[in-house]
Amino acid sequence: MKYDYLIVGSGLFGATFAYRAKQAGKTCLVIDKRSHLGGNVYCEETEGIHVHKYGAHIFHTSNKEVWDFVNGLVPFNRYTNCPVANYKGELYNLPFNMNTFSQMWHDVHTPDEAKARIEEQRREAVEALNGREPQNLEEQALCLVGKDIYKKLIKEYTEKQWGRDCKELPAFIIKRLPVRFVFDNNYFNDLYQGIPIGGYNKLIEKLLEGIETKTDCDFFTEYKESWREIADKLVYTGPIDEYFGYQSGKLDWRTVSFKTRIEETANYQGNAVINYTSHEKPYTRVIEHKHFELFGEEVYKYPKTVVSEEYSTEYKPGMEPYYPVNDERNNALAEQYREMAAKEQGVIFGGRLAEYKYYDMGPVIEKVLKLSL
Ligand code: FAD
Ligand code: UDP
């Protein structure tokens, strides 16, 4: 059997590609080295709850074509991400909005009062800049929201997450955090947001329906030398440096690890995501998975709950490569590999590992929908 495409990786890039190829009348074989399909959106069922094994995944997009595409496969629920921050036991709504400001400063009740307080809080930092742009994350944060919010909600969380002092981190990391003078705890600005009803595995099942798949199958041991004998084209979604045998050097990644446990209560923390913003706790956040799919009284449908502590962890070979590292060495090395990839005949490199690029799920699907097959 000769396939039109051998697709390496059954994450959202590979699975969406396979779906579209099948619709276009092409044949595909999808392989994955893991023992399951779905890549990082895969969920494992425990106590009736879908546990996001590779970290919490919330689908959000403003692209109607992408939203209609995924909802055409499986309807999405109304989940809206509203994380809460816990600073030494004090609770604050995120992202920074009127709820946060009134919790931080009890004499602040209106947008004008909040603006005046933030102006006062950021004055010192703005004056110190003397007209120049913020050079690091600390300067950027102090100029954005001032010292109280920086101290309680940003500094230690960011240091835990990145393992470096805020003065040594680039300013852009914090720029994407919304600051709002309305009472709105929705973390994302996108038009559409939710979780597939029945979990992400349903979405993957729909994408791969009727397509030949093979798990526990590593491209490098099984097909690297022989793929041209079984397929016309290759779609590769694994790490780009690995494809080229690391010949120009290894790319670095940032990773996270999880400690997951069952709690003997129906409702452990009352929210899907609680960020721990002080050094008091070693983890950055705690995820309670059932809140992604069960709302209000539905939470009590199951007597137990599953929670995961998330730790920012230094990457070592053998760990899951999660986020690209945006420094000079890695950007230059990735560019070198991208140039090599562009010359590779009959191979499409796509997704977060093969492009060495941080991609949310929406943009991954958007990218595949735009490809001509
Ligand atoms: P992946 O899902 O990683 O799939 C790649 C697949 O290739 C894997 O299954 C892997 O096993 C397989 N593979 C690799 N090498 C080989 C090989 N040699 N042989 C065979 N198979 C191979 N996005 C959002 O929109 N919202 C979120 O809330 C969100 N949260 C996230 C949280 C975390 C912790 C992380 C890391 C990412 C998050 N993302 C989120 C991003 C989301 O995970 C990605 O957009 C999506 O997974 C990209 O899909 P992909 O197919 O490119 O990669
Ligand atoms: N951040 C913070 N406090 C929080 C949440 C986020 O200081 O409670 C900062 C932190 O520097 C983080 C950045 O905002 O790296 C971006 O956060 P986001 O949640 O968007 O990123 P993710 O955790 O998904 O990588």
| Distance between the first and last residues' Cα | 20 Å
Largest sheet: 7 strands, mixed
User: What proportion strand?
Assistant: 15-25%
Structural class: alpha/beta
Helix-residue proportion: 25-40%
SSE order, as H and E? EHEEEEHEEHHHHHEHEHHEHEEEEEHEH
How would you explain this protein's 3D organization?
There is one protein chain. The protein has about 375 residues and is an alpha/beta fold. It has helices spanning about 10-25, 65-75, 100-105, 110-130, 135-145, 145-160, 170-175, 200-205, 220, 225-230, 240-245, 330-345, 360-370, and strands at about 5-10, 30, 45, 50, 60, 85, 90-95, 190-195, 210-215, 230-235, 255-265, 275, 285-290, 305-315, 325, 345-350. It has a seven-stranded mixed β-sheet. It has a five-stranded parallel β-sheet with strand order 9-2-1-10-16. The radius of gyration is 22 Å and the shape is globular. The mean pLDDT is about 95. The site of uridine-5'-diphosphate has 13 residues, from helix 6 and helix 7.
